[in-house]
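User
New here, explain this?
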Amino acid sequence: MNTLVELVFGTSPSWSHLVVRVAVGIVFFAHGAQKAFGWFGGRGLSATISGFRQMNIPPAASAIAAFVECFGGLAMIVGFLARPAALGLIVVMAVAIVKVHAKNGFFLNFALTPGQGHGYEFNLVLIAMALAILIGGAGLLSIDRLIVPLD
């Protein structure tokens, strides 16, 4: 089998990767759909672009981030192109840490202190989950596994 195809689609029969993949996929799909389409109480793409513009993120990069979250999350849920999706989601979260969350420290702002946003702990967990899929593949019940099963 072609090494590149194995690198992109190959996955072992892992239940744990299935659980991690679906969980992280649901989170990213929901947040991405808020940003891209205004679903689930979100404000949509134009508001996302306006908000990101205040952080000096160009409109094209804002749109790409919203669609990577939405469709990368969907890719994770069904397990198709899970490794490339995981890589895209890791990049989006790394940018979110650098541009938004690092200045607020590690912890989420559970007290909702005015003027202070959330720290990067949630982003770090999402990166770790996506990294697990990037390293090990989509796991059981994935389209990737139908294409290249590694047993």
Q: What stands out?
A: DSSP finds seven helices and no strands in the chain. The first helix runs from residue 3 to 9.
